[in-house]
């Protein structure tokens, strides 16, 4: 309907999609010519097109989005509100005002045109005005619009009747429908009112809330939303993890930098000190066992207990006064004594029997037996509770294996063997091979599984914790119930897990088991009581809670079920258990509660994780400080394991050594306390000299000489005179010649490049090329170099001096080849040794300071790590040295001397 | 042989008074005054003066300025060096303070008043003013038969060796004026020199130099040296240096007897030789007016300088090593600065012999007259200080100042004389260095010490303070291109010349042999070619560098590509 009139005007086929429709609209404003260019599509006869147009709205109805629009178009013919709304809704087009404004014009045109082509111009103008009015308040004109619409529809129907000859009823269906749709939608979130649509069209929380009014929980929600509104704060999205980490690192770095910077002046002082003297402590450490003992501080509980006994006032007083009182305090009852003796005897007996057994076993020569035994032992040790270090080591190993597997994927059917089998087809293989493959894959799965999944029980704990936290987050729930449930589960676990009975050693013996059983029974009794208590209190809390309780109950129930399930599993594991323990277990089962029985055999099922579980239990239980009972249980657990390991000779030794190590390390730590530093020329002279030579006799005969003069002066010989006379003739010339020679020798003149006669010439006709430029350049360079060298000579400006520049290879060894390490400047280096430091050149007071070694320390002195002290970074020199560990000055020497003297005086 | 004179009676030795003429002020009335300023009267200015004096002294003991530590980037080194400098300062200050006590006496000098001139003051005038012990240092020994005499003093100034040309050798203890030993070698003796102490002396005789001990026993005849004209002894290096009539300079180590150096000067016969006490460099004066300086380890002279247009007659070195005095036959005395090799002063006058005293006085002897030049202004401006003429007709052969005494010994054709020159000697002696009152034990001790501290001959160089410093990054003696080519050719020839083994199994085919030969030649050439290539590369790099440096204006240089090579 909408497109019809355009088609009739342009004589072009319409486009059925919305986009083309809109583009057409835009073009209309600018003119129809441009329009023509863009219109493409199949040319259809007018009538057909009309028909198609008529059905178009129906087509549009098919898509949900457009339904509304179509409906509105039909109902509110003269309104522009529809496209506007549409554009808002799906935001496929720019929300530019102009377009929105002009849109209605098109719209109406189309509508009008669809009916008769003649008056469309007219109508267009009308529609414009109407459109504007409609924009102001479309709803007021609703009535008129409807009337118009009705007329149109009637006309249309009539026309259709005329063409098709069918009754009007056949065409009425869709029309009715439309009318109903436009009018009859109730106002709801799906059918927003006009106000809402004219607004920014967003759905607010309040809108959503209204629908919930009266329903339970509405008040709460409203409160929350109000609270949010008041605060009016939007939560920012958290930073990316990388950014957060970076920030964190930055902060941490700043902190650590600050921490380290405070040491800077101290370190600087020590670095710059010529000498670091360690003489603060002449104490050479512990000299006696007593001294070491006095430093001892009890750490473990046992040690504390011991020290409390040893340092008991009574005992101390008794010890000081006399021995008799000590004896009194040391009274042991006869019964105790006998018991003790019996116990010892029993233990000895047990040990003896064990030894005998082991001897026998050792004698067995079967290798297979021993192999199996060893395997068993290894497995056993895996099952055995270990001390923390061992467990850690094992965990590390496991982790490494897992990582290795992840890296290599060794077990993922990638070996040659596996690949071949896969190639040949699995079905061809026999069962054994298939099993092996499966085993490998299983292994891979095991090894590549995440770390957490290895600790089954702990992970379940975690999940429960998570549940708890989730619940707490969801609404205000009672944490107490959660806690109680947890505690109960824990106690149950503890009840189950702590009672491991070793299948070897003394504790595996029947009477020991019986004794253990008794103890266990007592503990279990308590445990069960505790569980009952928990359940009671849990119920109470659940009552108060209300609706959510059922869930809780389910959780706890599931837990219980899990435990019972494990009990079911138990018999299987028992079959595997060794023959020694099986007898006693039968007994136990008869007597004991199933729980206990289960927990006993539990150790069979356990793998490495047991220890970790145990540890978990240990770590977790104290958190719920409510549970005393669990503490008791926990205490007992380790104890039994301890005893077991004590009796197992190997592990016992190990533990002893490890504990000894611990003691050692403790001792060391306490001991170390780690602290560680012209001349108006007298022409007279000439005159006088000459005078004296020639005429002045009286002057000559002065002095003390009173002796007669015997002249022994001989006239110089003829040759001498001649030589003298002609000596100075060409001396200068000769010398300069000499100098030149020497200079040429030391800096030889480069040879002039010459060409062989005939070289490079064919005939006389050919132009002489001369020497190649390369040779000429080389010569030039060499000459320049020589000149430079000559200019640099020391005697370059001294005409009458030749200073040899020949290198003396022998003297070369007295020079330093390269600048020694810390020095970077030649001048500084050469200045640094200008002063002799030997005793011949320096006063005795300074020699020592000049020659003091870098570190001065007494033999045997323990150098403690640097101690922090406040150092003024700007102070320099003496003050520095005078303090602390370092010095190098006379003052300090004197001081130390003084100190030594004082010591001497004391001793 | 020693005859009369005031030499014979060694009177009282008042050692405390010292052997120096101290602070003699010869005024117009010729009254000697002992300078005794009373410090109480003028304390503040004196203190000031003292502090100033101390400063100058400290400067002396600091031995130069400290380096500029601001250049250093290494803070640790900077800190350590500054601490070290502080220590040096403390040491120098302590030394300067101690100097007051260790060097109590000041040198004496003559001071003229009004129109008086110091060089007009006669020896008898001085003798009237000085003490008995100093006055006894004025004497003449007349030994007419064996002259002319040449003299040498031990470093301490206690002993003197005198050698008459006609074979008279004598060692005299100058302190108590006693003749220790004299002997007649009955042949020409041209020079005499003490070795490291008074126990030994060497004499350059007619054919060879000989070494005698104090008892006159000939210990060595050093035939290798030939006809020696002059002898010198380098006491720090234990080297006996001789120049023979063929112009050969020889260095012999007197400890092990090893000949350290035998250098041909190529400048003819000379009898002018002196050692520079500062660095041990031996200087020779030649007939062409050239002074050449030598060290035992180099065949060419360290320095050759044309000092005079005529033959050089005498030469002397200042104890600090910075000054040299030469005299030429053209009757000029020149004073040279050895640090710049420039003439400081040219004085008229002829000198047959020259000598510097410890305090820097220069004695020049010619004919029968001695004049002493002094530099009292401190500006290296030598002017006439004193003069003395001996009996006319006596020809002075040698002048030598006696160390640690204000005494000048004059060897002449009729024996030797001794006169007083106030301010010549160093008034304070260092017993570690030279002790005039040395006992036998001390002497022995010192001998051992000096032997232990003997310096190797390589340490003789123009500037010994260079020892330990960084080698100058100067040209390595690169072989020239021509030399390289010649070497390569030689190597190729050698490679071609090697005989080829006869082999079997088709390996002796001519083609194979040819290939092998070719390979050999290539192998021989390879190292040379490699070296050549490397050099070429270096040159190219340098060129490039220079080109870049030139091509870019300063404003654009920061955009230049940084070199990868650090």
Report on this model:
The complex is a heterodimer of chains A (907) and B (566). With 907 residues, chain A is mostly helical. Helix content of chain A is 67%, strand content 1%. Chain A has seven domains: 4-203, no CATH class; 205-235, no CATH class; 236-281 and 815-862 and 864-907, no CATH class; 289-329, no CATH class; 334-363; 459-671, no CATH class; 726-806, no CATH class. Chain A has 43 helices and four strands. Chain A has a three-stranded mixed beta sheet with strand order 3-1-4. Chain A is extended. Chain B has a domain at 481-559. Chain B has seven helices and 28 strands. Chain B starts with 42 loop residues before the first helix and ends in a 15-residue tail after the last helix. Chain B has helices spanning 43-62, 75-102, 123-129, 132-135, 440-452, 481-497, 510-551, and strands at residues 139-142, 149-153, 159-164, 168-173, 178-184, 189-194, 200-205, 209-213, 218-221, 228-234, 239-244, 248-253, 259-264, 272-275, 282-285, 290-294, 303-306, 312-317, 323-328, 332-337, 342-348, 353-356, 362-366, 369-374, 383-389, 396-402, 407-412, 415-420. In chain B, strands 1-28-27-26 form a four-stranded antiparallel beta sheet. In chain B, a hairpin with a 4-residue loop joins strand 8 and strand 9.
Core attributes:
heterodimer; A: 907 residues; mainly alpha; 7 domains; 3-stranded mixed sheet; extended; disordered N terminus; disordered C terminus; B: 566 residues; alpha+beta; 4-stranded antiparallel sheet; 7 helices; 23% helix; globular
What is the compact description of this entry?
The complex is a heterodimer of chains A (907) and B (566). Chain A has 907 residues and is mostly helical. Helices cover 67% and strands 1% of the residues of chain A.
